Structure to design on (208 residues):
């Protein structure tokens, strides 16, 4: 997290939280959602400014309720998730292929899921900022087990790594990743948030 953000939290500790104005879409893009957008259930405007995208990514965190937010100076901007808290990309690297989130965090993959719509989700560990409620200025970087929707542009590449067989309305099997055979299991998309403990649409009523 940026030092200037931590300083502002100390200087202005009681700035009200913001809900509904920022979203993470299925392609890992941050979207601004004004009142009109929210009222008409529109996706919102993609943020294209590179520095702002990087600022959001550096200050993206999670609280103990599973609500994800962007710490914008002293204000906490809770994020509406179109799918999952992380969006995964398969990226070429010097050592082969690697999985990165929309914040460029590496994912240490342990498996994958396939849902009824043909989506693939990567399971694994991600280093993320976590907010400690007992000390309102305390954030820590923690390695957390999480789930990340695989970007649809990478589905073809994933299929080349996978051995699939059809089960019910989806697929299961295994995929080869960094010399290991990892499982692909089934899930219904509606089960994701509860199983992996995140809140897709945070609100001030979701705090407990």
């Amino acid at each position: 997290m940026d030092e200037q953000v931590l300083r502002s939290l100390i200087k202005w500790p009681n700035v009200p939280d913001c809900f509904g104005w920022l979203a993470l879409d299925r392609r890992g893009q941050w979207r601004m959602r004004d009142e009109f957008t929210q009222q008409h259930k529109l996706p919102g405007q993609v943020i294209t400014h590179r520095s702002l995208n990087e600022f959001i990514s550096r200050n993206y965190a999670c609280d103990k309720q599973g609500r994800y937010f962007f710490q914008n100076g002293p204000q906490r901007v809770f994020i509406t998730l179109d799918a999952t808290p992380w969006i995964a990309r398969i990226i070429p690297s010097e050592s082969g292929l690697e999985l990165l989130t929309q914040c460029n965090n590496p994912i240490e993959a342990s498996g994958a899921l396939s849902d009824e719509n043909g989506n693939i989700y990567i399971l694994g560990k991600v280093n993320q900022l976590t907010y400690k409620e007992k000390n309102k200025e305390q954030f820590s970087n923690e390695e957390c087990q999480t789930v990340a929707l695989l970007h649809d542009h990478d589905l073809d590449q994933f299929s080349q790594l996978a051995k699939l067989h059809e089960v019910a309305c989806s697929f299961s099997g295994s995929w080869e990743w960094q010399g290991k055979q990892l499982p692909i299991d089934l899930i219904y998309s509606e089960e994701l948030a509860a199983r992996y403990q995140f809140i897709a649409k945070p609100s001030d009523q979701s705090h407990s």
User: Anything to note?
Assistant: The mean pLDDT is 88. Residues 3-199 form one domain. The radius of gyration is 18 Å.
